Protein 1
Amino acid sequence: MEACGHSLLFLFLLLCFSSLSYVFSALSNVEAASIIHRQLLALSKKEDLSDDFEIDVNIANPRLHRAYIALRAWKKAMYSDPYNFTDNWIGPDVCSYHGVFCTTAPDDPSINVVAGVDLNSADIAGYLPAELGHLTDAALLHINSNRFCGIIPQNISHLKLLYEFDVSNNRFVGPFPDVVLRLPSLKYLDLRFNDFEGALPSALFDKELDAIFLNDNHFSSQMPYNFGNSKASVIVIANNKIRGCIPNSIGKMAATLNELVLMNNVLSGCLPPEIGLLRNATVVDLSWNSFAGVLSKSLEGLTKVEQLDVSHNMLTGVVPGTLCRMPNLVNFHFSYNFFKGEAEECVPMSTKSTAVVEDKSNCLADRPAQKSAKMCAPVVSRPVDCGRSKCGSSSPVKPVPKPSPEPSTPPRPPPSPPQPPPVRSPPPPSVHSPPPPVHSLPPPVYSPPSPSFNSPPRPIHSPPPPGHHHSLPPLPSHSEAVPPIGGLSYASPPPPFYPGYN
Ligand SMILES: *[C@@H]1O[C@H](CO)[C@@H](O)[C@H](O)[C@H]1NC(C)=O
Ligand SMILES: *[C@@H]1O[C@H](CO)[C@@H](O)[C@H](O)[C@H]1NC(C)=O
Ligand SMILES: *[C@@H]1O[C@H](CO)[C@@H](O)[C@H](O)[C@H]1NC(C)=O
């Protein structure tokens, strides 16, 4: 029993903290998750939290006392803290802890409470203990770019004020952490660059979130039919294995969606004409999927779009000139498809459009660097009927027939590291490896993120100003260290104050 425990512990430590985890590729993710789960249970039993000699130090303020219990348990769940970030996490004065921010309670101006914890970029290895459920006053929990592993504990469902949850660029595993759906105040959800897998719950898109970052995980379900119910302004699901079609419900996001990045999944079917209803979208990236059919003329409704990328799909037909003349278009990439024609405005360097257009590796007569006639013929001669395709009823969707055979679909970009020794610090390189053929250009250059997502970075490690117990501490930011995706670098929408606090 002991020996078993020890070898499990050994395995756990290996899985969590060493770059050797790829050695265990024979171990399925589910098995790994269950091992880690069991081990977490064992470890938390082993931790003796009863050495509570300071038990009544904070008793005058029971909320700080509970925070103390949470943070002490968390510190014990940290195995490595290479920058000594939590060195001063000693004793009951949690408001002096590095990365812990206190302010007056929204419901009781006479006491201080822990309003946020920011451990961004600390490179700490460890896990999240269930005791974090005691941080019931926290509005912000930012732990991006660390080496936390295991699962997100159910007990964080007690964080009723939690507004921003950023666990990006860690080593969390297991299914989508449904517990985040039970956080009533949550607006900003950032799970990117972890090892989550399995289905995206449809409830995610019914929850009132402002930003959803799921990119660079291993999610593999169909796109939930209620996708369009989301009111988020940014949805990034790039670099997963989401399949199926884009639900027609996407049109319901017309007033709210600013950025949609679905790049490098296994999506298929026709592009729903409702995409053209997204009049506020500035970034629409559907590249590196298996979309078929024609580009609907309705897409010209994307009047605010600056970055439009449909490259590396199976699209056919003619690229309409109205798309290339959209007023705010900066980059329009439709390379690596099977287009047989493009309007005059869509010819790269055309004087009729100011956008940078990319058209290579299609079936365009008179254009350089196109597919061979032999590759084009079978696809171009068999157009896909998009008129009848509907996507997104809750009943199973009849798949749109894919052009067949599939001649030389360009190789996909390497899925985000198949588990090579993870490079955590500095963050993983851009996920956008250049397309294979020779004359390839660098990845698309995206304009800076939209202003609401790009307020000036705040110093994340600066100590709160003197007297912070009476004024609001500086807001930690979680934008700096998150790896960019395809040149896009998203910061969270920094709320003007600790949400719920004022
Ligand atoms: C952290 O503390 C240890 C021991 O006090 C010290 O040896 C090490 O240099 C410190 N590391 C950093 C990055 O300050
Ligand atoms: C987790 O929450 C449950 C109640 O939902 C509670 O009984 C339990 O003590 C909590 N665990 C810890 C470690 O705080
Ligand atoms: C969407 O655009 C309209 C004008 O077209 C504007 O009034 C509205 O504020 C925008 N909404 C968002 C969320 O950007």
Note: The domain at 1-186 is CATH 3.80.10.10 (Leucine-rich repeat, LRR (right-handed beta-alpha superhelix)).
Protein 2
Amino acid sequence: MKPHDHAAAFGTADGELRVGGMPLSRLAARVGSTPFFAYDRGLLDRRIDELRAAFPERLELSYAMKANPMPAIVQHLANRVDRIDVASGLELQAALDTTMRSERISFAGPGKSPAEIRQAVASGIIVELESRTEFDRVIAAGDELGLTPNVAIRVNPDFAVKGSGMRMGGGPQQFGIDAEQVPAVLRDYAAAGVNVLGFHVFAGSQNLAAAVIAEAQRRTVDLVSSLAEHLATPVRYLNLGGGFGIPYVEKDQPLELQLVADNLHDLVDGPVAERMPEATPVIELGRYLVGECGVYVTRVLDRKDSRGTTFLVVDGGMHHQLAASGNFGQAIRRNHPLVLGNHVGRPLTERATVVGCLCTPLDLLGDHVELPEAEIGDLVVIFQAGAYGLTASPTAFLGHPAPAEVIV
Ligand SMILES: *Cc1c(COP(=O)(O)O)cnc(C)c1O
């Protein structure tokens, strides 16, 4: 996808990008400072509507809030999705501050501390167990608090998902309990007084190949159906993971959602209904829900020519939006989509290299990108910035102030 396509999704008027309907220069004035992140509520809602329309009705949608834990985003989504998944004690507190009921919050991730597990058991959420140690800690917390913990087993599957940006299942993993160990674990802990609701399999992140995601979901349902025979109670919770990707660089094509959704209809109406009739199937998404609704807005501080290359130096950089600099899991650095947000329709008359304000060559936001001729004060906008932006970046590096975040 080209930068122009991303701009069209937000909308433009009088040569300006709009976010939440507001022209960018006015929004910048409203925010009062650059750089900043802005998230478009309408685009968030549109994404959820698309998913709801495509998915089976019985399938529940969970928001993996580590993708964007801004409280206003989490609050907004809490009213629109069915569940929230957290990955730390702090995220748990933020999720509990929303209207989401605690039994609809899950907590995944390796290395949950005894204190975090105690918080989780006290709040009544679903703890997704990654190891025997976590099982022991949950039991200890339940005994101490006089509560029956709710848990699900996170399973490291016996298959790997190819073509995913970040693989998190299959082979040796710090995530989950290996599928072949699960029967013994269930047997050993059968009398532990813990409410085992079901299973969770998360195979990887940033996957744009619908056929690969569909295959992983089929194999997950197969795997869980066979593990279910080792559980004393019916499976009530079936978290099929997610990992839906979004297009970052020009050659990326958007995920074919309908293909994934058709497969989910087959699974939910077929093997899930037949073999696990009491299970609530869940899809858990972070990046796909929020990534495309967000922009990172910076202002041009300097413009200089160096031996034939035009440099635009902006007031933001990789300390806020690490991924755009290629430092977050990209093998080859490619440009994330960017435009001059206050001159969207203008002809692209020059090639410029857009760099951030950090004193390192790594702070490169756009390498020889086609732009209209830019001046000091213009607004450079980076798209696809709604997920793994601010909280996934080294904000303390060089000690610049934190950017504002707004939802419009
Ligand atoms: C990170 C994570 C997610 C979210 O992944 P996305 O690729 O952002 O959708 C979902 N589930 C688990 C268990 C995770 O660790």
Note: Residues 69-285 form a domain with the TIM Barrel fold (CATH 3.20.20.10).
